[in-house]
Amino acid sequence: MPALTFQDFLLSAPGQLLLEWEKAAYSELTADVFGSCALQVGMPQLDTLAANRMQAHWLIDPRGDLCDPKFTLNRIVADPAQLPIQSESMDLVTLPHTLDLAKNPQQVLREAVRVLEPEGRLILTAFNSLGLWWLRQQTVKLGCRPYLPTELVPISLYRLKDWLTLLGLEVDRGIFGIYAPGFRSLKRLHAWSWLNKAGDRWMPQFSNLFLLSAVKRLPGPRIVSCESMQKLPAKIPAPGVPAASSTTHSTLLGKKL
């Protein structure tokens, strides 16, 4: 059975639908991320930083031969697992399918977090192993043509969130997208777009794609707002010491020592 590359997949009907959805999703989430430098790692076929207004945009292109000539980013041909970028120098890093197409996704993620500044934002997209598209891909074992890229190894949403947490990132937003079955016709895929609203409401875990947005947090004390301070108890007893009631407190104050 011939292999299906990611480039060839993007030329197919589901690949075109993926590009439509991810262009809109990245535009929505990157438009209001501010700073001076943004970095996209992988997938040069889509400019995930097009809506972002930072002064400097950079692209890490693993191969160097698939980049759209109209691509406006400054391009560096390099291995995503060994980024030639200074640590803590980027305010925004995007990973469009960089992890589920990588041989060592954990190392790629560690590198992305390394170059991200504290309080910087990381946004990634990935295929969902619980989606109907991945289910369709399993028919390859029966001799059918591949539906998704053959090098694809999807990572579960829960595992990705665990990885992000272990690396000091806090996931604060997620978007699920495309619930259509594994059709090969773009017309039929669009005809099932009504399923997107139902899926977002009732079964987001079965989307074909998902996006995660996370912020790199620094270890240390957490800032508490005035509103939160008002909700704290007036006095916190030491461990093993029962809290005194107001009556007992008054009695002790009036007792002669």
UniProtKB/TrEMBL annotation:
Domain (Methyltransferase type) ranges: 73-124
Keywords: Methyltransferase, Transferase
GO terms classed as biological process: methylation
Superkingdom, taxonomy of origin: Bacteria
InterPro entries: Methyltransf_11, SAM-dependent_MTases_sf
Pfam families hit by this protein: Methyltransf_11
MF GO annotations: S-adenosylmethionine-dependent methyltransferase activity
Protein name in UniProt: Class I SAM-dependent methyltransferase
